[in-house]
Every structure is written in structure tokens, then in C-alpha cells.
Amino acid sequence: MKKLKILIIAFAVMFLWVGSIYALNVPKNHLVSPHWVYNHINNKNMVIVDIRAPKAYASGHIPGAVDIPFPSIMQDYVGIKVLGNIASPQRMADIYRHAGITDRSIIVFTGGGLSEFPLGYSSETRALWTAWFYGLRNTAILNGGLARWMHDKLPITVKPSHPTESNFKIADINLYSRAPYQRIWKYLETRDAVLIDARPSAWYEGIDHDKRFVKHGHIPGAINVPFEKFERMNSAGYYEFVTPAEARAVMIKAGVSFRKPVITYCNTGYWASLDWFVTKFLIGKNDVADYNGSWTQYSRLPNAPIVDLHIHNYKK
Hints:
Number of strands: 15
Order of helices and strands: HEHEHEEEHEHEHHEHEEEHEHEHEE
CATH superfamily of the largest domain: Rhodanese-like domain
CATH topology of the largest domain: Oxidized Rhodanese, domain 1
Distance between the termini: 85 Å
Shape: globular
Number of helices: 11
CATH architecture of the largest domain: 3-Layer(aba) Sandwich
């Protein structure tokens, strides 16, 4: 009987040990620290995705990280005038398969944490938003990126990773995380949502010189909350996200109310993904969507009303 009890205890310990290796969920705010990643780096389901360019990846990266350069997850749709749109299901499924990603993966996206600014964490948030749209929920961003990883004196390598290709298939598409232009048209008629323009003020005011657009300004009723307000340079020399309390304060000061659904937009849905991430995961607003077509599409829509603060009128 005593031996049986010992055997049961041994199996229980083994079960808990195995569970601690394989059963892992990211924090509710979907931000993780370098030490969180390092402590779980041997988890077989952990996939660290480096979104930097191949040259930057080759110069040094987190051991085991796979390189999925950020531009590869975006796709231009020339016929409908949408630039930087979300890549097609087929392309993303191929990318995830080649990276060894499965529906059980814990995915951590990381960039440099320094060199991308003023684009900041928009590459990471756009990568996470894309994964979220295609059904991958156990996803996070390395807060501080590679710069914080190196600051914490954790190991890096130049050895490329060659993951085993998975059989990943897209089984779930979260349509509510993406707002099509028809949703914006409904907003214009009903004002049934809060529309956030994530672009720096020059684009919002219509004084930018961005040649991608035939018109400049912003969508009527949109509140300008530039994406860079949600990240800052740490005293140690890397960029990090602001705290949830600080993020909420920024939104409230700008005049954002969370009583209605939130839609974010920018020029290509890129900066908007950062406001989407902050609103959804740091502030905790569940019904938030990214208008992926954003200004590259909206400014070309027939009869779309536009506010141009530079000349103080509506243009059609």
C-alpha cells in the first residue's frame, strides 16, 4: 500500500511537471518580459517570431526565434485601392506552417525595441492583430523587444532556426476584429461607434504630404489619438508600452468614451493596430476593430465625406 501511494505521488509530480512545460497561457495584457520568455523558452509550443528584416535577424536574435519579416504579412490589393492590407488566408497559412506554428502554439512577437521608432511597436501589434484575426489567440508581444532582452543580458545567437513545418490550417477567422469600409459607412450614418484616428496629427489635420492619397484629412467624427502616445523610451534605452492606467488616461483626455464599440484606423491599418491592441488588451475594451483599408481606401471612396482642418471644410 505504501509503495502504491509513492507510485501515485510520483505520477502526480510527473503530470504536474509535464503540464508546467506544455500548458502555458500568455498574460491577459498580451505583453511579456524577456525573463518570462526565457523561463519558458524550452516549452515545445513556444514560437518566438522575429518580425525584423532578414539582415537584422541574421545579425543576432533570440535563440530559437524564427524570422517572419513584417512586410510579408501585408498585401496590396490594387484593384480595390487598398495598400498594406491583411495578407490572404492562403499566404498566412503558408507563413505559419513554414514557421512551425500550430493551433496550440504560444506565439511571442518581437522586434528590435529601439530602431523601429517612430514606427514603434506597430509592426508587432499588426503581426499580433493578423494572428488574432486568423484564429491564433495565445499570442503576445515582447515588451522592450530585443533591446530589452540584451539589456537583461540574456543570450542571443546568429544561428538561424529551421523549424519543422506544421500542418496548420486556418479554422477560425475573427471577423469582428476587422472593420470593412461598409462598417465605416454605417458609422457615418448612425455614429454607433467611437472612431479613433491613430495617425500623427499632420495626417489627421490634412497637412501631410503623403503622395499615396488623393485627398487629405480625416473621417468626420474621428478622435485623434496618435499611436506614439502609448509607448515611451525607458531610462535603460529601449521602448516599452505605457501602463494600462496611463493608456486609459490618454484615451479619456482625448475624449474617447468606451460606451460604444471602438474602431481604429490610420493610413493602412498599421498604426491603427497599436491603438487596437492598447484598447483591447491594456484597457480591456472587448468590442474593438481595426479598419484595415484605412485612409488609403477611404480617401478614394466616391462621395466619402472628409474633414480637412487645414482648410476647415468638408470635401467630397
